[in-house]
Amino acid sequence: MTSAVILERGHGKAHNPKVVQLSQPVPKTNEALVKIKAVALNHRDIWILDGDYPHITFDSVLGSDAVGTVSDLSKAAASSNHHLKVGDRVLIMPSTGWLSNPLGPEDMAHYALRGGSPIAGLFTQYASIDQADLFKAPEHLTDVEAAGLPLSGLTAYRAVFTKGRVAKGQNVLVTGIGGGVALFALQYAAAVGANVYVTSSDEAKIERAKQYGAKGGVNYRNAKWDEELLKLTGGHRFDVVIDSANGANAMAIIGNVLGIGGALVSFGQTAGPFQLEALYFVRQIEIRGTAMGSRAEFEQMLAFVTKHGIRPVVGDVFEGIDKIPDALQHLRDAKHFGKVVITL
């Protein structure tokens, strides 16, 4: 048997994480049995529990992020020339059905993220995974750091490079610093020599962001935050903005912060939708939606993290699979800076 956390149907719209005992999986052809060592939370987990995420599947194991070791291989896989072997420390591709198309999943009908969906998640002691979705974890990362890398790290990589095309010397704004994707975006952009600034409603988070490459930042709750930001840059507008909020502040971003021909790369709308005005088209602003990334981008991201020695920012660590419900509530309270990780 193996302990796991599944999505239990609640009363009304809200649902519950429930710790259960399941049969230990047996790897099928070309699969590997992975013993999970640590898992990490994402805001997606909260949206699933709140009933605000598409294709929710009840009684499905939750969780998209994990690091583990290969403990068994199927007979076919064991006899093949595949790169994995028992004992390897691995990261798991957090989605299935997107191979390499830079525009988006090759077949949306077969694309899914792990956890609380038709594809079983990783909040479990053992998971049986297609070997093609397993990648050796960067050696410089601890288990706790590695667990926080897959989903947020991939989302940020695609946002910064595939969609944002961030390069050395550009001015880049990352909004809402403190969350996993935003912190990765900050580190990635800084690693290639961009001038990175941040926003937050928490002054302490802005100061901490400077430790990871930010040149400065402003509190977006201030009425004239956009003017304050441009003072920091000496009046130079931004080439790229990486944003997950949208909402009312998106108007200030597009209208006042982005330069001519600048790009707003958006991977969420936690602050609500927004409407465009003709001025933004006249100024040649590009709005580029993005989410997650392909298996090819995941491999590129791992190589980038290894090359630049990037370490995921870990905010809080819980111990034991039974602590996952508590950790989810901690994430919901939004008091963390960096990833929330649970060791198994």
UniProtKB/TrEMBL annotation:
User: Cross-referenced InterPro entries, in alphabetical order?
Assistant: ADH-like_C, ADH-like_N, ER, GroES-like_sf, NAD(P)-bd_dom_sf, Zinc_ADH-like
SUPFAM superfamilies in the record:
GroES-like, NAD(P)-binding Rossmann-fold domains
Q: Matching CDD domains, A to Z?
A: MDR7 (cd08276)
Q: Where is the Enoyl reductase (ER) domain?
A: 12-342
Give the GO molecular function terms.
oxidoreductase activity
Superkingdom is Eukaryota
Q: Extract the Pfam families matched here.
A: ADH_N, ADH_zinc_N
Q: What is this protein identified as?
A: Enoyl reductase (ER) domain-containing protein
